[in-house]
């Protein structure tokens, strides 16, 4: 996992009010608990509710009290059914052996398993098959990087200085110079194929 991808995911969860913990990782062969990239807890959520839909955004996360997160920032790839079937390491963070060591940190109650990735296949049939595979492998929710970045950009205020976050500061500067505009302004722009 690249540091940039992890920073995006961390800032996203923190922006939504989650407390974020990054487990320590060691050199050499990975132990099961080292497959988990982030642990997140939302202290404002009283009742943990996992949505039925697998593709999530900030709305679905409002009901998540605690989760383990896997970050797969392979930004040149779309996650197709073939890739999901042929790459079992994508799902190792969601296995019981990886998750159980963090239960004392996360506290009592259900724990969601969230996978952060660039996106699924563009075709509806391949996307539907990918969602089936993800559910079957124990993934409760998927956050795409485009969704996280758009929602982060919407959270950033041009008049606020984000000196402790390089990512938020860059988004603020882009917005300040009108290089980053809201998605609603793109409604009438013709999409290129």
Task: Supply the number of helical segments.
Answer: 8
If you compute it from the alpha carbons, what radius of gyration comes out, rounded to the nearest whole angstrom?
Answer: 17 Å
Element-level helix/strand string: HEEHEHHHEHEHH
| Biggest beta sheet summary | 5 strands, mixed
What percent of residues are in strands?
5-15%
Number of strands: 5
Mean pLDDT figure? 89
Main sheet strand line-up? 1-2-3-4-5
Class from secondary-structure proportions: alpha/beta
What's the end-to-end separation, in Å?
Answer: 30 Å
Shape verdict: globular
Keywords:
alpha/beta, 193 residues, 8 helices, 5 strands, 5-stranded mixed beta sheet
What does this structure look like?
α1 (3-15) packs across α7. This protein has a five-stranded mixed beta sheet. The chain has 193 residues and is of the alpha/beta class. The chain is built from eight helices and five strands. The model has no long low-confidence stretch (mean pLDDT 89).
Set out the fold topology.
Elements: H1 3-15, E1 19-21, E2 38-41, H2 58-61, E3 66-71, H3 81-86, H4 96-99, H5 103-106, E4 112-117, H6 124-136, E5 141-144, H7 145-155, H8 166-176
In short:
The chain has 193 residues and is α/β, with parallel strands linked by helices. The protein has helices spanning 3-15, 58-61, 81-86, 96-99, 103-106, 124-136, 145-155, 166-176, and strands spanning 19-21, 38-41, 66-71, 112-117, 141-144.
